[in-house]
Amino acid sequence: MVAGSDLHARHAALSPRAAVWRAVRALALAALIGGGLALAGFVGFLRLVPSGGDHLNEKADGIVALTGGAERLSDALRLLAAGSGKRLLISGVHPATTENELARAQPDYAPWARCCVDLGRRALNTAGNAVETKRWVERHQFRSLIVVTSGYHMPRTMMELAREMPDVALIPHPVVTDRLRGEPWWRDWATAKLMGGEYVKYVAALVRVRLAPRMSSAETATAGRGADAPRS
C-alpha cells in the first residue's frame, strides 16, 4: 500500500509538467499549421499579381487610376491620349488638387488633362476607390473600365471594384513601379515588406468582402486610412 501511494503521488507531481509540455506541443503544431497555410496563401496571392506590359491595345468606355504613384498617373494619361477610353477618373486625389495642377505636372498630356479627366476626392482607401468609381461609371453609363494601379495592388483593387460593379467589364492595367522593376522582390527587405503588407491587406479585404455585410456607399467612401495605409 505504501509503494502504491508513493507511485500515485509521484504521478500526480509529474502531471502538471506533462500538461505543460502537451500544451507547448499543441501550440507548436498549431503555429506550424498556421504558418504553412499563411505561406500557401501568400504563394497564391503572388500568382494573382500581374506583371507589367504594353496594354495600349486595350479599349474600354472609361479608365480609372488609383492614386499612389506617379507611374500610375502617367500610364493612365498615356492610355487616355491613345484613345483607350473616353474619360479618365483619378480616384483618391487630395482635395486641394486641381485639373490645372494636373496639366502642369503632366505637360505632355495637358490637353487631355483639361478636357477628359475627372478628379475623385472622396476616397480614402481602396474600398472607397471602388465606391467612388462606381458612382462615376454610373454617371457616364460606362459598361467597361480599364483599371490602372500598381501590380501588387491589382488583386485587391479588382476584388473591390468587382464587388461594387459586378456587371462592368474590368480590364487590369498593372503598373510596374521602380521598386519592383529591378531585382527580384524577395532580395530587398523593403520590397518584401511591401508585398507582405499588401498580402495581409488582401486577406483582410477578402474576409470582409465574403463575410461582412456590404457597407453603405457613404460609409465606405469616407472610411479612414487606418484599415488601409497610404499606397505607394
Automatic annotation (TrEMBL):
One of its GO terms (cellular component) is plasma membrane. It comes from the Bacteria. InterPro entries: Cell_Envelope_Assoc, DUF218, Rossmann-like_a/b/a_fold. The chain crosses the membrane at residues 26-49. Pfam families: DUF218 (PF02698). Residues 61-185 form the DUF218 domain. Keywords: Membrane, Transmembrane, Transmembrane helix. One of its GO terms (biological process) is peptidoglycan metabolic process. This is DUF218 domain-containing protein.
